[in-house]
Every structure is written in structure tokens, then in C-alpha cells.
């Protein structure tokens, strides 16, 4: 496997030329597990960019990582790189409800958002900094006023996707937001777990923008695209996830940050179990949000399958959104929730088992997550509040 960041080293032009004619028979990729791997790679890409940087982000906190990425944006712009940042106001609800307690871009929130923030604060009791910044820093002002930086952060787009594009040659996408807790643990001590994938080559970026499959179809993308008019929405992720579950013959593994008890999905998973598929579901033992919905879902599945579905509680705060079947893995930003399927822009990458090296790398990390988790065999031992689970569907 070629190192994507050979861009500034001798021979990279030859490599990119070869890739453009090889139809990606040997794709150039790098799996980034957790922020500790993702952020250094993202920063390296920013420092090596010579023409353009595009960042699409759901959460961008005013914390160490948030400021570090902002500083790199300014440094790149100073040397002439055109930087474009798309940041949705929707993410400000989560930004103000925990951790640093503030957003890098959104210091003020609407009354509607304030009510949601107060619900999250009062319900989950997540730790929050006492010195939350409610002012616009010099770095922020420098960034938004820079002639080479364009910031799109004033609209509610309901865009939950997270991705970066560098020089139209490198794409990094997945589930990791720009925030300190993704780089290790949150203020409550929960270790965060998530993925990004780096793909190198202009054809990857072009096909991503077009929404088509990449190369031979071993790596491709699934998207929800919210339009101005509801009738023009293109929401694919619910269908793609269900197709994976329905097609499973031997194994089905779901590692999910937020998992609502949606009947289509619980029915499909139970049917898979009935036809002999080995089903594993892993959720956080203590999720930062939507904990009661998560537990209600797995409680139902464990009860209805009479213990045949294997349910695991991870000690980590799994921010992962991953579905894996016999020959296909999908991961990215899309949770199994009504909002994810009906209201939000989402973005997942799909990896076929034909992409053997990458497929095996991902499954090794998934299996490690299962091994580190506690298997729950008695549905009666799962404690959740059904009323809170109902309310969570309207807020998270």
C-alpha cells in the first residue's frame, strides 16, 4: 500500500499518473482509527496543500484541536491556498451542551437551540467546562476575515457529514468531528472510538463529488443529500443499510453510536437472525447522548431473539457508525436513527471484501472492539427509561 502523503516526495507525480490510468486496481488509501491517527494526518495534508482545502464539518469546538485546525487553515491561506469551510449551525446544539461548552464558529444560538441544549444538559449531565468562551477570539476573527478563506457557517443545513478535500487529490471522510474528545477521551473519561478513511487520487475526489462508485466499485460512497424542497431530497442511507442487513447470509455486525428502535431495522435484524446469520451488536455502555434509545433497541432485539443476537456494551464511547456483513462494510457519519435517515445530510464509505487488505484491517479493529466489550445475555439486566428514549428522538 502506498503512503498517500508521498505528495511532496520524489516520484509522486509518476505515482498519481499511474493511478489515473490503472482504474485503481491497487487503490491508494489509509485507514485512520481514532483522532490520534486522523488529526496528525489531516494536519499533514493541510501543510502539504498548495492550491485548495475544503472542510465540511458538523462539530468544530473552541478547544485545543479546534484551534489547532483553525491555525492550520490560516497558515495555509497565508501561503496562498484557497480554504473553504462549511460548518452547519445544527452542530452548535451539541457543541454548547458538553465538553468545552462552546463552538468555534457559533457563539450565539437561537431560542429553539437553547431549549435543546438545556434538555441535553439536564438529561445527560455530561461534564462541561466552567470557563466556556462566549467571545470571538483573535484567531476566529483572523480566520473569517482572511481573503483566502471562505466560511459558510450561517445556515441550518442539517449536514451531519464530515470530510476534507485537499488540492482535489486527497479525500478524507468518516465520523470524526473537530474536537478534543475525538483525540482521546471526553471530560468524563470515556475513550472515543471512530474512523476516517484517506483516499488519494483525483478520480476518487471526482467520483465522490459526482456521487458515483470509485474505480472497480470496491470502494464507493453512500449519501443523504438534503435539498431546499423536500421532494428533491436524495436520501439513500436507510435503503443502503437495510439492503446490507437483508443480504447478510453468515455474519452481521453493527457497531453504532446512536441506535434508535426503528421497526424496519429491528425486524430486518431479527429476520437475519432467524435465517441463521450470526448477529453482533455493539453500543456504548454509557453514551453521551441517546443512551436510553440505544438500550431500548438492544433490549428489544435480545428479548425477541431469545438471546440469539449477541449484544455487547463497550466501555468506550463508540462514536462509530458501522455496519458489516459477509462481504461489505459501511462506516461514516450515519447513525441508525430517524433523523439520520429522514432529516440529515449523511456520508458513508462502503468497502467491498474484494478490497481485501482494507476490509481485513477494518474487521480487525471491529473484532478488537467486540473483545474489549461486555456481552449482555439477559435483556432484563438492561436498564433504560422508555419515556426518555421517546423524547430523545425529537432532540438528538
Please describe what this structure looks like:
With 396 residues, the chain is α/β, with parallel strands linked by helices. The chain contains 13 helices and 18 strands. Helix 2 runs parallel beside helix 3, helix 3 crosses helix 6 (138-144) and helix 10 (291-304) packs across helix 13 (386-395). The longest helix is centred in the C-terminal third of the chain and has 17 residues, at 356-372. It is globular. It starts with 11 loop residues before the first helix and ends with a helix.
Number of strands: 18
This entry's quaternary arrangement is: single chain
Reported for the largest beta sheet, the result is: 9 strands, mixed
Summing up helix and strand content along with how strands pair, one would put the structural category as alpha/beta
Distance between the termini: 39 Å
The number of helical segments is 13
Instruction: Work out the radius of gyration.
Output: 21 Å
Provide the spatial order of strands within the biggest beta sheet. 10-9-17-16-15-11-12-13-18
In short:
Helix content is 36%, strand content 22%.
Primary descriptors:
396 residues; alpha/beta; 36% helix; 18 strands; 13 helices
List the helices and strands and how they pair.
Layout: H1 12-21, E1 29-33, H2 35-48, E2 52-57, H3 64-78, E3 82-87, H4 92-97, H5 111-124, H6 138-144, E4 149-152, E5 162-166, E6 170-174, E7 192-193, E8 195-200, H7 202-210, E9 219-225, E10 234-235, H8 237-247, E11 251-256, H9 263-274, E12 278-284, H10 291-304, E13 310-314, E14 317-318, E15 321-325, E16 328-332, H11 338-342, E17 346-352, H12 356-372, E18 374-376, H13 386-395
Helix pairs in contact: 2-3, 3-6, 10-13
